[in-house]
Write a structure and sequence with these properties.
single chain; 702 residues; alpha/beta; OB fold (Dihydrolipoamide Acetyltransferase, E2P); Rossmann fold; 7-stranded mixed β-sheet; 7-stranded parallel β-sheet; 23 helices; 22 strands; disordered C terminus; binds adenosine-5'-diphosphate; binds magnesium ion
Length: 702
């Protein structure tokens, strides 16, 4: 049986007894041949070239030398005992050192004999040495067997203890790979894909990735394996999407009725932007299709997503359905409630707010009105999906700013309606395209890529601590003009105490620069009670204070159009997406707005890039691309689930192009053959099932 080779337990390899098998399992999760084969090298070293002793430098990860051992001495006592060999080539001498197994080595090695040694140079005092190098008699080495691309494997202390350093793993791999041929490793991509994308067969790729015959073959093997990995992810996501679209029934919003038309024609406070119109149309088409909508709406801070949500909800009402909006915090839920209640006030539509602070009495009333269908729009926090909340006929759920709203939570919402409600997920955190394809690959996406007219782009500048006086002067000018200013400090759990002192000191310094009673300063941070916070906040909202000193608590939900300056202290300590979100708090009114990034004088390369990016652009997508490059996908907001992907070889940052190709390939195939039933695609169906068996369950990931 072809597949049985890969499913063979590693105990079947020569030299793998119970103990060594155990450590491979616990340290690397390697149980079967297939697991070992996907423990890919993390780099390759050139074993065909020699260096000379005199040219060794610290930057060299490995060196290969050819020369003779001049002397062998055992030095030290007890545990410090070691064997030291003086090794000479034409250019000089270097010490080779063995701690473990030194007696054995002392017997084996001969002086005045030519050897080839290979190892990692380490600086010891002012001289380099090689500890535990690989060493072979020059006369017995066939240089033709030495590869220019010798694989290097990740190992751990425990593995090394059982003889599995990189070298040991390579020997094991050699044994396994020697058994690979066309028959032992079955192809899992179709002929069509192999030829369309000029991919190397799987068995050959598996051989070449571990023991490459040339750089070109290595590149091809890498490409093939990355493509395969990303292709099956896309195939799975797109099938999931297809199943949703084709088989999950949805509330049919077939008509545009009075509510929508009335509001659109008489009460719309402004003209929709082109992007808003386009997105509303996309949503309308989805909701009219008879199948459940699963749509991600991306749009930068201030691009006008709320209005799109409102129009969608009016469509629901026109078709006899209720809707709800779920926000991540109470502040934001409140703000949505106020905004939407005001927008819809001339329409006589019943809406309500439900959060953790709602009283039992309020809840009772609300539950009753929901069940009778009288209440049309419910706005709230997570409390909304509590089991007690029952809707008469929920047709649309809008989820605002919740990146972690995964497959499982969406599944929970399905049970809230008689038919699964349509789902619209809104986010202002732009996700790079290729990441969105992977993390939200089963959703349709809409993008609002146009700001409402009349917005002046925020001007951003970067100042060093030494230029603070200038910044104070600028703040004074702006206050004279009647504007308000945010001054934001980082507050991070690990350094909370110190951060808090900085915030207090910053506040005190500002009071000296902006003395009462002419100036008033608000301060808001996590140590205040909600009443205190609210009080300070309200003073700023009413314009009674000119400056608001705060931690990032103001990040979400605050909308104060008159605040037009954002000063970010210790800006180098914030991530790019956070800086972008903070900057989005200004620029909401008619006035020119400013963002000032204050940093210390010394900046690391990454911090410098972050500051330069912020100064250069206000485009959230561009910023997210830079963020991705700096931090890698694991840390990008909205992609905390990256662990579940468990990628063995592909890299979401570097392989964006392959992701795009793989997605297009998967889409093309599904367009023609959604069930993968055609003869030529059966192999893909099989591959998908095989992967399911060895992959984590996405549905369990929230
Ligand atoms: P976000 O996408 O960040 O949720 P909002 O929906 O809160 O943005 O909109 C930001 C601001 O822009 C609000 O004050 C809103 O009233 C205003 N706005 C939205 N759409 C338009 C438009 N088409 N023309 C002018 N202003 C608009
Ligand atoms: Mg919003």
């Amino acid at each position: 049986m072809a597949s049985s080779f890969l499913d063979t337990p590693i105990e079947y390899l020569k030299g793998i007894g119970p103990q060594r098998a155990e450590v491979l399992k616990s340290e690397l999760g390697v149980f079967l041949f297939r697991d070992l084969l996907t423990h890919y090298p993390f780099r390759y070293v050139d074993r065909t070239k020699f260096q000379s002793v005199s040219e060794i430098s610290e930057e060299m990860p490995y060196v290969q030398l050819r020369g003779v051992i001049e002397s062998l001495t055992t030095v030290g006592v007890k545990r410090g005992q070691r064997l030291v060999a003086i090794f000479r080539d034409g250019s000089g001498t270097i010490e080779l050192v063995w701690f473990q197994g030194h007696k054995w080595m002392a017997d084996k090695l001969k002086t005045q004999t030519e050897y080839i040694v290979f190892g990692k140079p380490t600086l010891f005092g002012r001289k380099f040495n090689l500890a535990h190098p690989e060493i072979e008699l020059a006369s017995s080495v066939d240089m033709n067997l030495k590869s220019a691309f010798q694989s290097v494997y990740h190992s751990t202390e425990k593995l090394k203890g059982k003889g599995f350093d990189s070298e040991g793993l390579r020997r094991l791999m050699r044994q396994l790979v020697s058994q690979i041929n066309q028959n032992s490793i079955e192809e899992n991509l179709s002929d069509e894909i192999l030829s369309d994308f000029k991919l190397m067969p799987k068995w050959e790729a598996m051989k070449q990735i571990h023991f490459p015959d040339s750089n070109l073959l290595l590149q091809k093997a890498e490409y093939r394996l990355k493509f395969e990995e990303l292709f099956f992810i896309q195939l799975k996501l797109l099938r999931l999407h297809h199943i949703n679209v084709k088989t999950v029934p949805g509330a049919v919003f077939s008509k545009v009725g009075d509510c929508f038309n009335d509001f659109y024609n008489k009460h719309l406070p402004f003209q929709l932007t082109g992007a808003q119109k386009r997105v509303v149309k996309e949503i309308r088409t989805d909701m009219g299709s008879g199948h459940q909508m699963n749509r991600l709406l991306q749009g930068d801070v201030g691009s006008g997503k709320t209005l799109v949500a409102v129009l969608s909800m009016l469509l629901a009402i026109d078709n006899g359905f209720q809707s709800c909006i779920m926000a991540p915090t109470e502040i934001l839920a409140n703000q949505h409630y106020v905004t939407i209640a005001e927008l819809l006030s001339p329409m006589g539509i019943k809406i309500a707010l439900l959060t953790g602070s709602s009283t039992t009495k309020e809840r009772k009333k609300l539950h009753a009105e929901l069940e009778s269908g009288e209440l049309k729009i419910l706005i709230g926090t997570h409390a909304l999906i509590e089991d007690k909340v029952k809707f008469a006929n929920l047709g649309l759920v809008v989820i605002d700013e919740q990146h972690r709203f995964g497959v499982a939570q969406r599944a929970k919402l399905r049970d809230k309606g008689k038919v699964p409600p349509h789902i619209l997920i809104m986010t202002a955190t732009p996700i790079p395209r290729t990441l969105a394809m992977t993390f939200y690959g089963d959703l349709d996406t809409s993008v609002i890529d146009e700001m409402p007219p009349g917005r002046k782009p925020i001007r951003t500048s970067h100042y060093m601590e030494t230029q603070r006086l200038r910044v104070i002067g600028f703040m004074r000018e702006q206050i004279e003009l009647g504007r308000q200013i945010y001054v934001v400090y980082p507050l991070i759990k690990e350094s909370e105490k110190l951060d808090f002192q900085n915030l207090q000191k910053g506040h005190d310094d500002l009071i000296k620069e902006f003395p009462q009673p002419k100036y008033q300063i608000s301060i808001v941070h996590g140590k205040l009670t909600s009443e205190q916070k609210d009080f300070e906040m309200q003073r700023f909202v009413r314009g009674e204070t000119q400056i608001m000193v705060a931690t990032t608590v103001i990040e979400v939900g605050v909308n104060i159009p008159n605040a037009s300056v954002m000063v970010i202290e210790s800006a180098e300590r914030f991530g790019l997406s956070q800086l972008h979100q903070l900057r989005g708090r200004v620029g909401r009114g008619a006035e020119q707005s400013y963002c000032i990034l204050m940093t210390s004088y010394k900046l690391g390369a990454d911090s410098r890039t972050r500051m330069e990016t912020m100064v250069r652009t206000t485009d959230g997508f561009e910023i997210s691309e830079v963020d991705l490059k700096l931090r890698g996908p694991g840390d990008i907001e909205g992609t905390q689930q990256s662990g579940v992907l468990d990628l063995k070889i592909a890299d979401l940052v570097r392989d964006g192009q392959i992701i795009q190709l793989a997605r297009t390939a998967a889409q093309t195939i599904l367009n023609e053959d959604a069930d993968l039933a055609l003869e030529k695609n059966k192999i893909l169906h099989k591959g998908l099932i095989q992967r399911e068996k060895t992959r984590p369950d996405w549905a369990k990931v929230g």
